[in-house]
């Protein structure tokens, strides 16, 4: 009987250790997933940040045809252009214009993200 009780006690202790290890791993795994999601969101938001004012970009956005990059807010690009600057705010190529582009998926994403 003493051997059975000892085995039972050892199994309970082992079970507790395994449960703790699993909880710790799952908690750590959740942390990693959250960190990856936050890092990815941060990269996306940096990608769509207005090059001129450095603020979050909202639709409609201006995309430069010269460097094929998101410039940012229409109003910022218009102010840039109206101030006599004829170069792209990103690549500095001559002939910058303020054509807007509505990218439906991106517009919806930008409207839904709060940062």
TrEMBL record:
InterPro entries named in the record: Znf_RING, Znf_RING/FYVE/PHD
Keyword set, alphabetical order: Metal-binding, Zinc, Zinc-finger
Protein origin, superkingdom: Eukaryota
SUPFAM superfamilies: RING/U-box
Gene Ontology molecular function, alphabetical: zinc ion binding
Gene3D superfamilies: Zinc/RING finger domain, C3HC4 (zinc finger)
Protein name from the UniProt record: Guanylate-binding 1
Native species: Paramuricea clavata (Red gorgonian)
């Amino acid at each position: 009987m003493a051997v059975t009780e000892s085995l039972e006690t050892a199994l309970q202790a082992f079970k507790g250790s395994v449960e703790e290890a699993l909880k710790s791993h799952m908690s750590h795994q959740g942390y990693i997933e959250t960190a990856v999601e936050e890092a990815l969101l941060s990269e996306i938001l940096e990608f769509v940040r207005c090059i001129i004012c450095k603020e979050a970009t909202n639709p409609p956005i201006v995309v430069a045809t010269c460097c094929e990059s998101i410039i940012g807010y229409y109003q910022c690009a218009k102010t840039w252009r109206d101030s006599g600057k004829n170069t792209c705010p990103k690549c500095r190529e001559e002939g910058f214009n303020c054509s807007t582009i509505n990218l439906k998926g991106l517009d919806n994403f930008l409207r839904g993200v709060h940062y």
